[in-house]
Amino acid sequence: MIKEDLIKKNPLRIINPEGANGTPRLGLVMARAGLGKTAILVQIALDSMLRGNKVLHVSIGQSLDKTRTWYDDIFKGIATSVKLDKASEIEDEIMHQRMIMTFNENSFTVAKLKERLLDLIDQDIFRPNCLLIDGFDCSKTPEETLKEIRELMESLNLNVWFSAVCHRDDDRESESGVPAPCHTTDQLFDTIILLQAKSGEKSIALNIVKDVSGASQGGKSLNLDPATLMIIEA
Known about the structure:
Rossmann fold, alpha/beta, about 35% helix, single chain, 9 strands, nine-stranded mixed beta sheet
């Protein structure tokens, strides 16, 4: 398979993670711990990078090397599964379009992120099209933080994707089915994807519980293969 076919046939085309009509999108991937949130974010990032965009991956509570390993492993898995032509050349090319920024769990604030990001842009070092925030604790002042992120998204015309953990013993949810701790902030997101293990099946369902962007294709669904962490069409 060549690069152009990989982009066209990527299962993520179902949700079109970069939005519709050029309008920036704020997306959320929710799941219990260990179900594959980071794998989803990385595949969203790789899809964006393959299409020539720049991605800033903000990793909270995870090292630079660990985050980089996610990209290396998932790209190799995709390349092997589709028998991608010139895989090494493509990998070298797209990884230059990604920057990883790390924060300790207790040190992340939108103000710090904005300061570091604007420094990169002002110095003409790196201007991302897509921002991923992995590991943010949505149980702590989420409304304020997410409003600040929306403002940043709109001012810089960024597509932004978050990951968040939901817990089995917390049954609170919004009217649209968004579980705690994001049940009070679902109105701030354009798209929300919930990863749920299927009873009696090995795959994990990617359920689109909210999409006001108009980008997702109705009548189609995605799964995550827990063995490979690859997104596949259901």
